[in-house]
């Protein structure tokens, strides 16, 4: 059955579907970046509120700023922006159809439709899931990079910008001119202090072309920090077939684990849905939660994925079933990551590691190592290197994190130990692949990627164990190197 508004009532028994009248929904949120994660996470929370008869004036309008977003737009509009969510758990599978999203804006050069939608006073929140690498951060300072060509372009062409931030600034300019208040800008990407980073990007870009507007945004706008957590694999042909077998023709279904967490700083300038009524945590201090999740979960993903690629482990669950990869994961988490994480209410760092081990080992979640390893340039820089820097500053060993970086360098050489080819998997793949090939014989070549490592190449307590680890990976093999580090 083709998924659409008119077929909702005829869905097979046992499949939850919207109980609210979708024709009554009105928009309150524009969300930029309509990937699987948003549909399984933020949109799900809103859908749950709507199921209770709440938040009917907070429906989502989807948006994107890159040409590749057009394919997702076409698929979702063809099914009235409905999404089939499949919860995968060893105890059983549950399926529901969600309907909090009601439209998807055209993807056009200059972002005119997006700017017009965000200029509407009815839009009170603009959310973003554009990945960690989409924030134009300087690798050395962590601040907003005003020299990036996209940012230079947007500053010179504020009415026809290329970036999400440029579109937001243009819409905020229109709102100010019309006498409307600014919207709340809600970052949902895995960046520590993500609201503060988003503020720096939007205000920093506005300041390049209109300092008075920048001051207005900074003073009147809101940029709450948030932490999001749910494992959401990429949609596979097998998932599409699974959903069809259940009786639903959905071109873009989403699978997810039986765990969600959303911690949000309660700082909104034009109101918000009552997300706390459906399980979100509203707080004045997101930092400890996000540090625990980003460092143990997201950092842990990078510990697993590069080793998994080298050893041909297809999924994260397969990595956790491999005693050598799992032993390395546990050793680095316990010795080097946990000391850099503070407890949160109801959860210690070690207990969180145990929780993550259980979640990662879920065999029903076919989360590919390739997906998790994608864009290591951003993920290593965002998730592992800050821990490494803290460990160096505290005088602790960083041998495990150095090995993690060596595993990444070994992976970027482009071949697995079984001889198969690792296809390009990073926006900077050509540069990384060239450096990785040369680093096989001179490990320092890899650390001279200043855009990633900055001054870490000059830190002997990191550079020396890195060189030793990369040499061992090539001379002794990945498995023996992992075992030795884990004490096996």
Automatic annotation (TrEMBL):
Alphabetically ordered keywords of this record: Oxidoreductase
Domain called Mannitol dehydrogenase C-terminal: residue spans: 285-474
Single GO term (MF): oxidoreductase activity, acting on the CH-OH group of donors, NAD or NADP as acceptor
Top-level taxon of origin: Bacteria
SUPFAM superfamilies: 6-phosphogluconate dehydrogenase C-terminal domain-like, NAD(P)-binding Rossmann-fold domains
Leader sequence segment: none
Pfam families, A to Z: Mannitol_dh, Mannitol_dh_C
Residue span, Mannitol dehydrogenase N-terminal domain: 28-276
PANTHER family recorded: MANNITOL DEHYDROGENASE 2-RELATED, MANNITOL DEHYDROGENASE DSF1-RELATED
Protein name: Mannitol dehydrogenase family protein
UniProt source species: Thetidibacter halocola
Lineage: Bacteria, Pseudomonadati, Pseudomonadota, Alphaproteobacteria, Rhodobacterales
């Amino acid at each position: 059955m083709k998924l659409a508004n008119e077929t909702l009532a005829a869905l097979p028994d046992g499949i939850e579907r919207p109980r609210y009248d979708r024709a009554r929904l009105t928009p309150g949120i524009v969300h930029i970046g309509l990937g699987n994660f948003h549909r399984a996470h933020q949109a799900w929370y809103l859908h749950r509120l709507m199921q209770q008869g709440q938040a009917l004036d907070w429906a989502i309008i989807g948006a994107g700023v890159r040409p590749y977003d057009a394919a997702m737009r076409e698929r979702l509009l063809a099914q009235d922006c409905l999404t089939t969510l499949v919860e995968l758990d060893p105890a059983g599978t549950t399926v529901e159809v969600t309907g909090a999203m009601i439209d998807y804006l055209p993807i056009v050069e200059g972002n005119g439709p997006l700017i017009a939608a965000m200029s509407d006073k009815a839009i009170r929140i603009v959310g973003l899931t554009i990945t960690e690498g989409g924030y134009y951060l300087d690798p050395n300072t962590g601040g907003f990079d005003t020299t990036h060509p996209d940012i230079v372009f947007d500053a010179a062409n504020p009415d026809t910008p290329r970036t999400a931030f440029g579109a937001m600034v243009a819409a905020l300019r229109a709102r100010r001119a019309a006498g409307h208040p600014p919207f709340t800008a809600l970052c949902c990407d895995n960046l520590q202090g993500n609201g503060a980073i988003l503020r720096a990007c939007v205000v920093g870009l506005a300041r390049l072309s209109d300092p008075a507007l920048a001051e207005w945004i900074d003073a009147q706008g809101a940029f709450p920090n948030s932490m999001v957590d749910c494992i959401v694999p990429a949609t596979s042909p097998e998932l599409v077939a699974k959903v069809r077998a259940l009786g639903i023709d959905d071109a873009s279904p989403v699978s997810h684990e039986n765990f969600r967490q959303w911690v949000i700083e309660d700082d909104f300038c034009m109101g918000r849905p009552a997300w706390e009524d459906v399980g979100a945590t509203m707080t004045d201090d997101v930092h400890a939660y996000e540090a625990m999740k980003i460092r143990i979960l997201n950092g842990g993903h990078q510990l697993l994925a590069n080793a998994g690629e080298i050893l041909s482990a297809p999924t994260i669950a397969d990595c956790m079933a491999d005693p050598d990869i799992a032993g390395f994961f546990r050793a680095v988490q316990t010795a080097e990551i946990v000391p850099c994480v503070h407890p949160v209410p109801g959860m210690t760092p070690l207990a969180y590691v145990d929780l993550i081990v259980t979640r990662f080992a879920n065999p029903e979640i076919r989360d590919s190592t390739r997906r998790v390893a994608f864009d290591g340039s951003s993920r290593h820089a965002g998730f592992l290197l800050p821990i490494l820097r803290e460990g160096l500053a505290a005088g602790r060993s960083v041998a495990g994190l150095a090995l993690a970086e060596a595993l990444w360098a070994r992976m970027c050489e482009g071949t697995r130990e079984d001889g198969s080819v690792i296809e390009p998997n990073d926006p900077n793949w050509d540069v990384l692949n060239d450096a990785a090939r040369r680093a096989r014989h001179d490990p320092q070549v890899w650390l001279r990627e200043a855009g990633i490592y900055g001054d870490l190449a000059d830190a002997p307590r990191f550079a020396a164990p890195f060189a030793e680890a990369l040499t061992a990976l090539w001379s002794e093999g990945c498995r023996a190197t992992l075992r030795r580090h884990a004490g096996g």
